[in-house]
Design brief:
Aspartate Aminotransferase, domain 1; seven-stranded mixed β-sheet; Aspartate Aminotransferase, domain 2; five-stranded mixed β-sheet
């Protein structure tokens, strides 16, 4: 039985706890894990009917849908303000599904050049193999969007906040440009998070998240989700996704439901910590460059405040060289070296040699991914402990020869 709560009547925090709940006959408090790949029918006629038309609370096969997964889909859709959602096995399955499900040979896509490495791979390598034309622009420059988005453009794709250099796309302006030419707008919204997202309100047609990041927030599972109109999700995305095997597991969906319950509390605390640390690093004065949209000195600070209302959980800074960056990473004691973000644990990444290492040296330079650039995802540790850890690592990294 689905518990019906009108999204308009409830605050975001309440929706994150209650939306989409389906209780069995046992009346459980915590959502049930329906760890099954198939479903039993009362008789052959019922099986026939379900394959003709599946009802809202009916299921056929876990690759097509599952009650626990459906709870997650309905809850994240209520949070985002979307009509519907389809959950996937990973964030990249969501990106791939959102794009490939709607494209065919001869279509044109315009994308921001500043993208995560795997997103670039789909756009540069996979889509062109099947006859899709892809054009790249500097996403921060509206004139480039205007020149590139032509009447034959089928879709526009961007990260609302780029990884790892934290450049922002003017979402409302790009949506206006795209819609004027009849193009659909797909936004990877991971860095904005569902907490600060206003993407649909700003005109985005399809929102994609890696649920692996802030939605889980505790480094446990992979997951992704595509959000949009019911027409797009059920008529465009679902047929492709359910037949190509991108399904999220019920256990992962249950963990993501638990993650949604605490996401806003976690993300707001992480953002406050990121703001405090970024300001302290600027005041310290030893780093040649500190990048954080919450800083007033960030060139897109006003856009960040208008678009998200906060700087987010991730900052970046440049130590001047790969050697200094490696000394910094190796000297940290609390902050761990990994390649995820949005976790309860603070994580440091050297993008040039890990997440973006497959990019050419020229493209990395163009995107601002220098050998000394470090990405820092702030967790839930006390900011004063993180600052002490960072300060001690900077003492090691910025030896006189490197200053």
């Amino acid at each position: 039985m689905t518990q019906d709560h009108s999204p308009r009547a409830l605050s975001r925090r309440t929706r994150a706890v209650h939306s989409g709940t389906r209780r069995s006959q046992y009346g459980e408090v915590s959502e049930a894990i329906f760890l099954t790949q198939g479903f039993v029918y009362d008789d052959a006629a019922q099986a026939e009917q379900r394959f003709i038309k599946t009802g809202d609370d009916e299921f056929i096969y876990a690759r097509y849908g599952n009650p626990t997964v459906r709870m997650f889909e309905e809850r994240i859709a209520a949070l985002e303000g979307a009509e519907d959602a389809f959950a996937t096995a990973s964030g990249m399955a969501a990106v791939n599904g959102a794009l490939v499900s709607m494209l065919k040979a001869g279509d044109r896509v315009v994308a921001s050049r500043a993208l995560f490495g795997s997103c670039l791979y789909i756009l540069q390598e996979i889509l062109p193999r099947f006859g899709v034309e892809v054009a790249f622009v500097d996403g921060t420059k509206l004139d480039e969007w205007r020149a590139a988005v032509t009447p034959d453009t089928k879709a526009v794709f961007f990260e609302s906040v780029s990884n790892p250099t934290l450049d922002l796309i003017d979402v409302a302006a790009v949506c206006e440009i795209a819609h004027a030419e009849g193009a659909l707008v797909i936004a990877d919204n991971v860095f904005a998070t569902p907490v600060y997202s206003k993407a649909i309100e700003q005109g985005v047609d399809v929102v994609v998240y890696s649920a692996t990041k802030h939605i889980d927030g505790q480094g446990r599972v992979l997951g992704g989700v595509i959000l949009g109109t019911r027409e797009f999700i059920r008529k465009v995305a679902e047929p492709y996704l359910k037949h190509t095997g991108a399904a999220l597991s019920p256990f992962s969906a249950w963990l993501l439901l638990k993650g949604l319950e605490t996401m806003e509390l976690r993300v707001r605390a992480q953002t406050a910590g990121a703001q405090e640390i970024a300001e302290a690093l600027v005041e310290d004065g030893r780093l040649p460059k500190v990048i954080y949209p919450g800083l007033k000195a960030h060139p897109q600070h006003a856009l960040a405040m208008r678009q998200m209302g906060a700087g987010g959980t991730v900052l970046a800074f440049d130590l001047g060289s790969k050697e200094a960056a490696f000394r910094f990473l190796d000297a940290l004691e609390i902050i761990v070296i990994s390649n995820n973000l949005g976790d309860a644990k603070s994580i440091v990444t050297h993008p040039a040699t890990t997440t973006h290492q497959r990019l050419s040296e020229e493209l990395r330079a163009e995107l601002g991914i220098t050998p000394g650039l470090v990405r820092l995802s702030i967790g839930l540790e006390a900011p004063e402990d993180l600052l002490a850890d960072i300060a001690a690592a900077l003492d090691v990294a910025l030896e006189p020869a490197e200053v």
